[in-house]
Amino acid sequence: MVKKRNDVGSGFYLYLGVRRREQNYIENTFVTLIARLEALHRKTMNNTAESRYVKEQVIRIIADVADRKDRKWLSGCLKHAHEPNLAKRLSDIFSSVDLGVPPRRLRKFASQCAEIRNDLSHFGERRGSIGYQTFIRDVAIKNATLSVIYHAVILNEIGVGREIIHEWLNVRCFSAKAYFVEAGFLNKET
Questions:
Q1: Contacts of 92 (CB under 8 A, 6+ apart)
Q2: How far apart are the first and last CA of the chain?
Q3: What is the average per-residue pLDDT within 29-40?
């Protein structure tokens, strides 16, 4: 645990801040959870073969630009082009632990979370025709589901076995299963 704490640092500590259950707006809790999952991804999964390949590709393309000023400008614009977008980061984190959820549903959930986070961060509200009460209910469900997923990811990171995590999610923690049904991961018959 100490090694993981030193290696991952904020990816663990930031989650604990959400778990303190201090009063907070639902939207703030959601944005905070997403930011902390993104930080965890940056610490644990950012240097993949795919991102190294994209980085090399960007460097090659920039090198082909003849004008020095254009090359400098393009370098600034593409500085982070090799990094995955938020939906991909979330999907990677969610998939890092066996949640018993089909990958397609995890990717859809990750995309929905990324879209909501971007709307809240850049517009201060959810864009579209959805009513506020419906939106808040959806975010509350996502908050609860994200907390369960984040907890499972941390358990996995510190070396808790797959079987124990799976038992916790599916047998011991009724609320986790209920949140997974509400989030659309599992069928209501479950």
A1: 41, 45, 84
A2: 34
A3: 89
